[in-house]
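Much of our argument rests on the idea that a fold can be written as discrete symbols. Part of our work consisted of pairing the sequence of a single chain with a tokenised description of its backbone. No coordinates are needed to read the tokens, only the vocabulary itself. The record that follows shows the chain in one-letter code together with its fold in token form.
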Amino acid sequence: MANLPDDDIFVKMASEFIDVANKYGHEVDQQLVGAALSHAAARYNAFVVSTQVEDGDHMKELRNTVTKHHVDAFQEAFNHHYDDHLKGLAKRA
């Protein structure tokens, strides 16, 4: 699996996804938006794996490794952004 680059296209795509989420966040519950984003990411990443394996047996073999990779990457990003928001709240206090 590719490492996520910190380059312009990565930041551009992430910003565009957030723009769409923010739009929906004004229309429906923000927790629903977050759940939809998480679901979409899981669905898309499972699809990506299916396009990179030889067959179903190979995909089954990779399940735990791929799942751990995505869970770890999500946790790292979530904690980074969570800390950013904590700092923002501390500045407002």
Summary: The longest helix spans residues 56-92.
